[in-house]
Amino acid sequence: MESLEHWLDSIRLSQYLNVLIDSGYDTLHKCVALTSADLDHIGISLPGHKKRFLSQLAKFDFKSECNSTESEECVKPMDAAVADSLLVNL
């Protein structure tokens, strides 16, 4: 799994690294649960940045990264249709 810092760099949103870490989202696994409202709350409010963040995050297959047992760090990926429906409201 790539680091949060590397991923943010790759999607050109590295300016939000400290905001995410300060808000307790220091890994990609923790970020998967973020919603558009959550991003607003922590200070990521530009519509294009939120859309890019959420759409790129939805591409990760976190389930394949996990061992056979579930853990806090093991989350199911968001269905692409669900991710698209969330982005419609941005």
Oligomerization: single chain
Tell me what portion of residues adopts beta-strand conformation.
Answer: under 5%
Helix/strand/pairing category: mainly alpha
> How many helices in DSSP terms?
6
The CATH architecture is Orthogonal Bundle
CATH homology group: Transcription Factor, Ets-1
Question: Averaging pLDDT over every residue, what do you get?
Answer: 79
Q: Write down the domain tally.
A: 1
Structure described in brief:
The chain is mostly helical and 90 residues long.
Protein model, in words:
- 48% of the residues lie in helices and 0% in strands.
- The chain has one domain: DNA polymerase, domain 1.
- The chain starts with a helix and ends with a helix.
- It is an all-alpha fold.
- It has helices spanning 4-10, 17-22, 28-31, 36-42, 47-57, 80-87.
- The protein has six helices and no strands.
